[in-house]
């Protein structure tokens, strides 16, 4: 399986997670944003937008909307079932990845974060279907805006149901801090803090992303 090139707009959307929060404005109306602001996802271009609460309500609640509201909280999936053989069948080259249903592609795709941003990898659908059979909640993920986030790095076996913006945030952290081939201690400390906060609070505080 050959990884596909990063989707257009993916790396550009990471900038908001490596900037200071007070630099961010609503990308729909231009108002300054609080650090704990909502996001909308434009499915046609597969882009994430920072927005104020008014725009989130206005544009995210329209029928057949151009934008989809991104959920707020993540959930640690205690009891999630994935064997080493099932993970290997997904053919992801690193031990951190997220999976979501891409409406435009009409299939589940995987992305894995790295120093260059997010790299997309097409899945063997049979391997994914087997995982869904063992974990029916995966069929309940909202298309485009919710993902299965997998962390199997350094012996971990952690699985989360997450809003897509948290996947962008993790990718932004890795892209900003990764050094050399192994990443370096700063990058791995940031990755560990990210997952600890996600598990404890259901969301990673904005301040932690810039720490």
UniProtKB/TrEMBL annotation:
It comes from the Bacteria. InterPro entries: DUF5947. Pfam families: DUF5947. This is HNH endonuclease. It comes from Paraburkholderia nemoris.
């Amino acid at each position: 399986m050959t990884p596909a090139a990063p989707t257009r707009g993916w790396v550009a959307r990471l900038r908001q997670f490596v900037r200071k929060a007070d630099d961010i404005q609503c990308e729909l109306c231009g108002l300054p944003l609080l650090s704990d602001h909502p996001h909308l996802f434009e499915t046609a271009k597969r882009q994430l937008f920072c927005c104020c609460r008014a725009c989130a309500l206005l544009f995210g609640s329209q029928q057949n909307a151009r934008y989809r509201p991104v959920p707020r909280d993540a959930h640690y999936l205690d009891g999630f079932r994935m064997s080493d053989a099932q993970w290997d069948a997904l053919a992801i080259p690193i031990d951190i990845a997220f999976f979501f249903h891409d409406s435009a592609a009409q299939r589940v795709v995987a992305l894995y974060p790295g120093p260059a941003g997010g790299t997309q990898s097409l899945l063997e659908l049979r391997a994914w279907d087997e995982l869904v059979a063992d974990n029916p909640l995966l069929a309940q993920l909202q298309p485009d805006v919710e993902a299965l986030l997998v962390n199997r790095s350094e012996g971990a076996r952690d699985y989360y149901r997450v809003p897509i913006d948290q996947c962008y945030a993790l990718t932004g952290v890795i892209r900003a801090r990764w050094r050399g081939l192994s990443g370096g201690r700063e990058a791995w400390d940031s990755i560990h803090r990210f997952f600890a906060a996600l598990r404890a609070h259901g969301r990673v505080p904005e301040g932690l992303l810039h720490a």
